[in-house]
Amino acid sequence: MELVTPGIGLIFWQTVTFIVVLFLLSKFAWKPIMNALHERETSIENALSAAEKAKLEMQGLKAENEKLLAEARMERDKILKEASDAGNALIETAKQKANEEGSRMIAQARESIENEKRAAITEVKNMAAVLSVDIAERILRKELSNPQAQQELAKDYIKEVTLN
Amino acid sequence: MKKLFILLFSFLTISAHAEAAAEGGEFKPGDLIMHHIADDYTWHFADGVTLYLPVILIDNGTPKVFSSSNFYDENHALVPYEGYVLNHGHIYRADANGQPAADQSSLLDFSITKNVASLFASVILLFAVFLTIAGSYKKNRGKAPNGIQSFFEPIIIFVRDEIAKGNIGPKYERYMPYLLTIFFFIWFNNLLGLMPGGANLTGNIAVTLVLATLTLLITVFSGNKSYWSHIFATPGVPAWLAPIMIPVELIGILTKPFSLMVRLFANITAGHIIILSLFSLIFIFQSVAVAPISVAFAIFMFFLELLVALLQAYIFTLLSAMYFGGAVEEHDHVGDHGHGDGAH
Q1: Which site among A8, A16, A18 would you substitute to test the B interface, given the most B Cβ atoms closer than 10 Å to its Cβ?
Q2: Which residues form the signal peptide (chain B) (predicted)?
């Protein structure tokens, strides 16, 4: 019975002390501790969500970068293709032009050769004519140095001239 | 550490044995154990190391303060002092023969007993620990905890998140100071009670009575409309049952703190009784051969008691939080007939 009979003295001291402890600890310990914990938790939460946001942003940036890179790559390919096309076309035209020029020059050359040839032939012919007249003149002069030969010739001419 | 405990415990037990022997022969374990778990006017740390605590009496409204050493003569025998006598752990008015007189009315005993002294010591410890921690929180604002702060922070967070938030709900914040205070008060005092020479404060029914009464008062004063309507007009119960239901519910208000009071008192006292009984075995058998077994069991019990010290603090706090939660809970759904007090 002794054990389960609360004593007035201890009830009094316990009540007073506990209430004082409760009051003082609430004011000077629990309040700052709870506030500090709350503050820290909020700051950690904020930091985490900021990190999450930054991560998402980074991902967005990365995706954008990749997109830009892909675009740039495509652009480059396009430009390269265009350039090579343009180059090919240029070469093609140049070749064509060169061919044309070449054939034109060949044609010209052929023409001028022809002309030269014709001129040369004409000159040879003329020369041959002069030479033959000269030769003929010399021969004639020699032949006709004796009267008999003159006569004979005259005779030949006369023979040739058929009197119609 | 263990050795130290054993040594200190055996010190206590031996000195008690010596006392018992001096008082007249036979060893009575019951008396020894009751002496150790009951309150006292002196604090007996070890043989020859005794602190005589002040006696404060209010006799018919006149306060009287004197040292309890006045009740003992040089042979450590009890003697009457200024018309008062110490008999079986209580102070009575003495008659002419130095025996308790028949008339003991309006004699109030507010002495600083061993338990009160231990209470003050625990309060100093509580202040020292938690004001230091509060200081560290101010100093390490927004930084990671260090030192003693990092030991107690998880416990404080556990009380807040698992005990308060889980059982009280969104209004938990205003109960936090009370819950934290009872949790650490009970835990610290349970541990101090396990110290060699420590007082059995939380195993004293007066202490648990006060703690349980505070829980009751807070519950009753924070009870909202739905809490009281559950008591005076329990939903789903026909009106003609009210004459039975209302007394039952009112008794229910009282049985909850009553169970808190008895649970803490009985658990702590029982732990002390078991450890002391195990040591008493050595003296009952009057054989040193029993000592290893006694000590082994006592060590086991001691570790169990360390767990119980924390567990009982947790249970008291948890149930208090549940009662508060029941008092502030909003029952806005009509179909809910549950009581939500968790004490069934």
Answers
A1: A18
A2: 1-18
